[in-house]
Design goal:
Shape: globular
Strand order of the largest sheet: 1-11-8-7-5-6
Low-confidence stretches: none
Bound molecules: nicotinamide-adenine-dinucleotide
Radius of gyration: 19 Å
Oligomer: single chain
Number of strands: 11
Structural class: alpha/beta
Distance between the termini: 62 Å
Order of helices and strands: EHEHEHEHHHEHEHEEEEEH
Largest sheet: 6 strands, parallel
Length: 289
């Protein structure tokens, strides 16, 4: 009998989380007499980055979080950019700092991220926060992996004991994703561009998170029937359409569930960002009192 494939859409989860965040922001305002504030640093004029930054500001606005955009020239030097970040670090009215990636190639992203005060690092990407994640006590967890876990939990997918694979080992997605799945008691295999027999490995898995960044590379032959797949990839292809790393049209009737692109992981990333802003704002301002 053909499997009834479920689409793991973010919309309902996002609505529930937004309602909760609204209350948190309300409590915050009542306690500190201001709302939390996010600073987003955008270097250059990358159109996709501009869209992402605009969405973040719109969501902040919707939730009553203040947000400020610092737009910088694409030719800015590392020293100048670090200076802007230091200024935001020192500003007591800024609760979270996000540097929109990718940065122009002359800038060392790692060095720039390390310049962010870990107490304001809403992306959870500083070495300090990544180390805390390994130790299981991170103050802010990278937004996309955090959002994936929230999405899976919302749809009641029990992770304990599952055989899971993560495809991709970036600091922003793959590595924290594997750690979070492990913390949920899943058994995790990390795969990447040098993995041998990728298809053979993935075919054994109950759940696969794909973050390879390769448009529509993964057809149904990579997954066992009845598996769950989370597609983190997001690409605009030649005809202007948005797609993920999955060949989504092949998945119906084969997978138990998968995340659509758009409408799956993307909105969850923004919600996680908002959760991190509010959490870091509470932590830092409580300690200042
Ligand atoms: P990245 O390029 O830094 O990392 C890609 C990883 O995939 C690498 O570790 C590489 O080893 C691995 N890889 C590449 N090709 C592979 C292959 N053929 N087989 C196995 N492994 C392979 O990318 P990233 O920053 O982790 O992002 C991955 C994708 O997720 C991109 O499409 C990005 O746009 C998307 N993304 C989406 C969101 C969201 O909110 N939806 C957030 C972050 C990233």
């Amino acid at each position: 009998m053909a499997i009834q494939t479920q689409l793991l859409k973010a919309r309902e989860v996002a609505q529930a989380s937004e309602a909760q965040l609204h209350n948190e922001v309300h409590k915050f305002k009542a306690h500190f007499s201001v709302s939390p504030q996010l600073a987003v640093v955008l270097v250059g004029h990358d159109p996709a980055s501009q869209v992402y930054v605009r969405r973040k500001h719109e969501t902040c606005h919707k939730l009553g979080i203040r947000s400020v955009k610092i737009e910088l020239h694409p030719d800015i030097t590392e020293k100048e950019l670090l200076h802007h970040i230091q200024r935001l670090n020192a500003d007591p009215d800024i609760d979270g700092i996000l540097v929109q990636m990718p940065l122009p190639s002359h800038l060392d992203a790692k060095k720039i991220i390390e310049g962010i005060d870990p107490l304001k690092d809403v992306d959870g990407l500083t070495t300090s926060n990544l180390g805390a994640l390994v130790a299981g006590n991170a103050k802010a967890v990278s937004c996309t992996p955090k959002g994936v876990i929230s999405l899976l939990k919302f749809y009641d997918i029990q992770l304990k004991g599952l055989n899971c694979a993560v495809v991709g080992r970036s600091l922003i997605v793959g590595k924290p994703m594997a750690l979070l799945l492990q913390q949920e008691d899943a058994t995790v295999t990390m795969c990447h561009s040098a993995t041998r027999n990728l298809k053979g490995i993935l075919q054994q898995m109950d759940l696969v998170v794909i973050a390879a960044g390769k448009p529509m590379l993964f057809g149904k032959e990579f997954f066992r029937e009845g598996a769950v797949v989370v597609d983190v990839g997001i690409h605009r292809i030649d005809n202007g359409q948005i797609c993920g790393d999955l060949k989504a049209t092949e998945m119906n009737g084969h997978l138990l569930a998968y995340t659509p692109v758009p409408g799956g992981v993307g909105p969850m990333t923004i919600i996680s960002l908002m959760e991190n802003v509010v959490k870091l704002a509470f932590n830092r301002r409580s300690n200042l009192k």
